[in-house]
Amino acid sequence: MSTPDIPILLAKFDELGDTYLHEEVEQALQVREEITPHLLQVIKDVGDNPLLYCLEMRNAHVYAALLLSEFREPAAHELFIRAFSIPEEQLVDLWGDLTTETLPTFLYRTCADSLEPIKGLILNREADQYVRCAAMEALSYVVAFDFSKRDEVARFFQGLFTGDEAAKDSYFWGNLVATLCDIHPGDSMAIIREAYARKIVPEGFIAMEQVEQANGRTPEEAMVSLKNWANARMPADVHAYISWFAEFQQEDKIAPPAASAPKSGHKGKNTAQKTKKKGGKDKK
Predict the structure, then answer these.
(1) Helices 32-48 & 22-30, crossing angle to 10 degrees?
(2) 37 Cβ partners below 8 Å, 6+ apart?
(3) What is the tens place of the pLDDT at every residue in 193-212?
(4) Average of per-residue pLDDT across 99-110
(5) By residue range, what is the domain housing residue 12?
(6) Which residues lie below 8 Å from residue 98, measured CB to CB, with a gap of 6+?
(7) Full-prediction pTM beyond 0.90?
(8) 229 occurs within a structural domain
(9) Are residues 10 and 125 in the same domain?
């Protein structure tokens, strides 16, 4: 494919439709270097003017995001954060299930070992609660594939139980506890028990009994479980994965190829996220 053909390819990606553009995606994979700046611009445009993107009913951002994740493009990282930190209504219209299904992968694959932007997204009370939870999951992926980062991530999570980080009824709290369980609660148990005693963690997301169960595993067992989960959420078959999301507008869609069963050790933290397509900012 020649460089002048790239705008034609992007125009095809922008068209809403039920048919996955397998041939066009294959072409994009073959011209990674040439198409990457154009894909980055698409994600930047979403962050800069999400309302316009909604009104024009464009779709290239779906393909752009998944391709940039496949490319592990570091320049996409901050752009992803901005593009998912948009108003709730536009977030739902533009990204739909990608917020809970693939944003953790987007953030992990493009972070280039820099955790601060992801931490900043988790701390941002103006961001959608499901986006913040996805960022927590991204940090768990970091730990899954680089255990040396475990203590840094755990200390960061341990500092998020003041009660001011999110609304009382936010999924933030349950997801925070569940993610600590994923990386093994261990040295976080005292803080978690105090959070339950202060009723910071809402009932029904993850029970203290499940936290104790997760703590009964060895750190090695926790890492095996977490790595298996993370690998299942990042399948190698990019065509099978993108094709599902390219059709996410359909009502009769089937489940994506990634494993969707809850992880062992606690109630799957994504269960609560997936019960609603809409997110919601935490009310101040």
Answers:
(1) 110
(2) none
(3) 999 999 999 878 899 999 99
(4) 95
(5) 1-145+234-250
(6) 62, 65, 245, 248
(7) no
(8) no
(9) yes
What are 88's two structure tokens? 């709730």
CA distance 203 to 178: 13
**Both 131 and 159 in a single domain?**
no
- Token readout for 278 is 């809409």
Do 119 and 51 belong to one domain?
yes
- Contact 65/106 with Cβ under 8 angstroms? yes
258 part of a folded domain: no
In the numeric block, which tokens belong to residue 282?
A: 């935490």
Residues 132 and 204 occupy one common structural domain: no
Asked whether the beta carbons of 131 and 99 are under 8 A apart, the reply is yes
Is residue 118 pLDDT above 70, yes or no?
yes
Dihedral, CA atoms, 281, 282, 283, 284, nearest 10 degrees?
Answer: -120
- Same domain, residue pair 70 and 130: yes
Q: What is the domain count for the chain? A: 2
**Length of the chain in terms of residues written:** 284
Asked whether the beta carbons of 190 and 178 are under 8 A apart, the reply is no
Question: By three-state DSSP, how is residue 193 classified?
Answer: helix
Same domain, 54 and 122: yes
Q: What does the block give as tokens for 152? A: 């840094």
Q: What one-letter code names the amino acid at 124?
A: N
**Do 117 and 156 fall within a single domain?**
no
The pLDDT of residue 18 is 75
222-246 per-residue burial string, b: 16 or more CB within 10 A, e: under 16: bbebbeebbeebbeeeeeebbbbbb
Structure tokens belonging to residue 148: 């040396």
- Does residue 278 register a pLDDT over 90? no
Contacting residues for 189 by C-beta, under 8 A, at least 6 apart: 211, 215
Is 138 found in the same domain as 176? Answer: no
277: its two tokens:
């397509």
